[in-house]
Amino acid sequence: MRDRSISTWLAVAVLALIVLSVAASPWVAPYPPAEQNLALRLAPPSGAHWVGTDHLGRDILSRLLDGGRFSLSIAALATVLAGLVGTAIGVLSARRRGWVDEFFTRTNDVLLALPEMVIALFIVAVLGTGFPSLLLALIVTGWTPFARLARALAYDVSAQGFVQAARVLGCPPSFIVFRHVLPHLAAPMLGLATLRFGHLLINVGALSYLGLGVQPPQSDWGSMLAAAQPYAMRAPLTILAPGLAIFAVALCVTLLGQRLAHMTGSQLLLSRTPSRTPADA
Q: Where in the numbering of this chain does the ABC transmembrane type-1 domain appear (predicted)?
């Protein structure tokens, strides 16, 4: 138990350091991220360039901090929006039941059966590259776990005595949802959101690596990986730095998310809850 607490606090400390550094990048970055110096192409780490330079002589640390702002922001925004959409759909399915529940349940099953990257690639290919299409792709592929968990929890809460009493007293459905159902969903959904953030961050990096994310001159960790691939043998840090950044954030968030999920029970519910409840039988 003590080892788990140590790993959790270590993950929090590392994650806080990365997030604060990225957020303060306009003030703490040693160089402008787009500043080129062809005389220092693929330079090794030095006192002037702590992580070296890339193939255009740009400071890797500065680009790492600047690119992290986009990678972390888009992953966080996609997690929040996917969580809101999934929670709304899950609660609506549990409340309305009938054909509404059937429709969203089948849609959820189809999306869960398909690889997320295939769906994301299709959306970006149809809508084109850029921030809006990337965000939409992440939301479409990210809302299903939230809906599945929210639906199961909403079913359980709706069967409780205090909800039945509220119905008998004539409380409107909207009051019951906001006063009784949603508060009981908050903690488990937060645990799930923390777990999903790391997953969506990896998806952001993968799509950007394929050239379907942010476009130059803006950079993120995925596009840095793609640009550094031809020079990985000559200057390993050009590809190791963004790769380790994605790995570190995803690992820390996953450790934190597992701790929160253990405390709230959301991980257990998500792993054991079928897409259809016994009430549907």
A: 68-257
Average pLDDT along the chain: 83
- pLDDT tens, position by position, 73-131: 999 999 999 999 999 998 888 887 778 888 888 888 888 888 888 898 889 888 888 88
Cis peptide before 217 (omega within 30 of 0): yes
Q: Which two tokens mark 200?
A: 């969506």
- Residues counted in the chain: 281
Burial class (CB in 10 A: 0-12, 13-18, 19+), 76: middle
Q: Is 37 helix (H, G, I), strand (E, B) or coil?
A: coil
Q: Is residue 54 part of a domain?
A: no
Report if residue 23 sits inside a domain.
no
Q: Is residue 125 part of a domain?
A: yes
Distinct helix (H) and strand (E) counts, the chain: 12, 0
Domain holding 98, by residue range, is 75-271
Q: What is the per-residue DSSP string for 136-174?
A: HHHHHHHHHHHHHHHHHHHHHHHTSHHHHHHHHTT--HH
Total tally of structural domains belonging to the chain: 1
Render pLDDT for 202-218 as a digit per residue (tens, 0 to 9): 999 998 888 887 777 77
Q: What is the CATH number of the domain that holds 214?
A: 1.10.3720.10
Rg over alpha carbons for the chain, rounded to the nearest Å, is 22
